Amino acid sequence: MQTTYIETQQISFQDFKNQILEDYRLGRISREMSYLGRREVLTGKAKFGIFGDGKELPQLAMAKVFRNGDFRSGYYRDQTFALAADALTVESFFAQLYADTSVEREPASAGRQMNGHFATRSLNEDGSWKNLMAQKNISSDISPTAGQMPRLLGLAQASKVYKSVTFDGSEKFSNEGNEIAFGTIGDASTAEGHFWETLNAACALQVPMIVSIWDDGYGISVPTKNQRAKADIAEMLSGFQRKEGENQGCEIIQVKAWDYPALLDAYARAEQFARMESVPVVVHVIEVTQPQGHSTSGSHERYKNEERLSWESQFDGLVKFREWVLNYSIEIEGKEEIIASVEELDAIDEEAKKIVKAGQKNAWENYQKTITDLIQSVLPLVENLKGQNAEIESYIGQFNKLVSKAKKDVFHLIRKALLATRGTNSAERTQLMQKYNEVFEIEKDNYSSHLYSQSQWKAENVKEIAPVFSENSEEVDGRVVVRNNFDKIFEKYPETLVFGEDAGNIGDVNQGLEGMQEKYGEVRVADTGIREATILGQGIGMAMRGLRPIAEIQYLDYILYCLQGMSDDLATVQYRTKGGQKAPVIIRTRGHRLEGVWHSGSPMAGILNLSKGILVLVPRNLTKAAGFYNTMLQSDDPAVIVECLNGYRLKEKQPDNLGEFTVPVGKIEVTKEGKDVTLVTYGSTWRIVMDAAEELEKLGISAEVIDVQSLIPFDLTNEIAESVKRTNRLVVIDEDVEGGTSAFILQQILEKQKAFRYLDSDPLTIAANDHRPAYASDGDYFSKPSSDDMVERIYAMFNETNPQKYPAIF
């Protein structure tokens, strides 16, 4: 059991003095970073700046109770905390400001995130987990306001899970669940729904979480009174305050941002509640100042009056801290002791300026050297082409006139030179082309790598194991196949857990988890409230801490509630850290071809376009779904698996090797061979397409039917193009709206696989109407593609080419 700050603070006066002065020093360094960072933006050396000035003291206090193994999920003003937690240096702060793409110099995001977005590296270079208990951990920040909150819930819940769950290697992720998850949020962002949903869930689950609210009275220019029902968020939250003897609610602590001793006490108490009692805590830090305003985009003088600006100047945390230090005295053994004199604090102030300036200078020089080295390797090769085209000399002249040069300017020069010398076959041009390919590969890695896993555990590497059937294999409802497969999964992988609405006690609404909670307990098979955004957040946070969560979103339509978190957080985790963090969540949901406006929508196009970075798997039956779960639990990619909602009661043959067989991602399956036309589909629509294909056979049309199975990744071996090469016709059939998933599939086949070369007829898409489907079976028939629709429209393709053989139907 880790001790708390309260329990460890029996120290000598000299140690106390040293701690105070170190806090003062760090606070001054952080402030100078903010000041100099703003100047770097305004002088054009950086693009944008947003800083943590004014929040130094509460962040120093928070850092004192932040221990190895703990996690933070915050937002972009926590630079002082990151410094104090040894997750940031002056140089790495400025490297991020300049967008330096070096992981070594800017380990948080390798230049992919704007400044103020902090992260520690949870993974080794090969994608394997580091020992997270040997470091203080920061989950990678995101900008969307309150978007960090759902993930915070999962980071905190992981500690509760680890109190009863262990597995081989779990000591890397937890010490018997004694870790705290720290969250930070600006006061105005507490108006967002994600804040309330997260706090509500935390209070219900009773997880060790400390949320710090930095309250500076504004949301950019909008005052707090216009943000919420009450100006005081602590007053609004009073109903969340736990009552004695009840295992619900949270503790609420309010403290002033400039009151150093009160801040130490507040965070010491918060740690005690969270670490010792597993109680969520809200620390409402009030009277926060913002000396430089919101960001470099504008000045706060535009919306703050003179009285407010004067107050902020007087109650600046570092000003008040300095006053407190200078006024502090204590008598020890008859001798008056002080912390520091004016001269000593002045010396610290000067030292802080020098440290920050030196760090900034090194960061700038390192960043510039990358560009200078690139120029020196490229420019002579471009100059060698001057004799081959007169325009090249002018391009070089324009380039040399640039006051500040970026990589894009270098690449623009190369590409203009290659364009100007097109058609020329010379050694000089070949040299430049080779150099271009070489440096482009480097920048492709710098800016476009790690959208998906690049480790040995990526989903594409999982070996295919076919389902095994025998004479003893039973014909069962599809739900039984997936249920029995989950039973094998929970037995095989103790780190796996599932949670969602109705997932526990009744075994999900379709009985795919029937009996699992009774067998494996409420921790591993859990019910949740109706709160999709934080169900996803639970999954992200727990996956970041080494667990293998399956986050159940009851219906595909409901995934819209958590699409923001999927798009802004989960899909970008590996990308925005350049492989430094991962969150291999499996999102379990169900949909396709049900009946009614609210349970049969198909937001697949939205998922595909907004969630690149997450695998999208669309099995046609529950055996295929089970195989995808087995695949993804061997992978470190996140995925959404969409089970067929109308397939749970359909009979399937149950494989003998449950829990072992896998379905490969990015691999299509030809479910009916044909020679006249290729029909491409997925999910529940596949059954209707198969019916249509049989009808077409009777009409003299031999249709090949392909089940895509996996939308992301899509047909990695271009097998669909090979089918089109044989049939010379292509039809994409989809239950999504026009221009939705069918457009994506068509683009993949025609453009990427170049199948247009083999077509004898225009490609055809058969999609749903643009409205949601109406209720009942008739609603489905008239809203989404029916077998009749498919037969008639595919038949029309053949009528167009051979009307005598295929006379018109209508």
UniProtKB/TrEMBL annotation:
Keywords: Oxidoreductase, Thiamine pyrophosphate. InterPro entries: DH_E1, THDP-binding, Transketo_C/PFOR_II, Transketolase-like_Pyr-bd, Transketolase_C. Transmembrane segments: none annotated. The keyword Oxidoreductase applies. Residues 476-650 form the Transketolase-like pyrimidine-binding domain. The keyword Coiled coil does not apply. Its cofactor is thiamine diphosphate. E1 component of the 2-oxoglutarate dehydrogenase (OGDH) complex which catalyzes the decarboxylation of 2-oxoglutarate, the first step in the conversion of 2-oxoglutarate to succinyl-CoA and CO(2). This is Thiamine pyrophosphate-dependent enzyme. It comes from Chryseobacterium herbae. The lineage of its organism: Bacteria, Pseudomonadati, Bacteroidota, Flavobacteriia, Flavobacteriales.
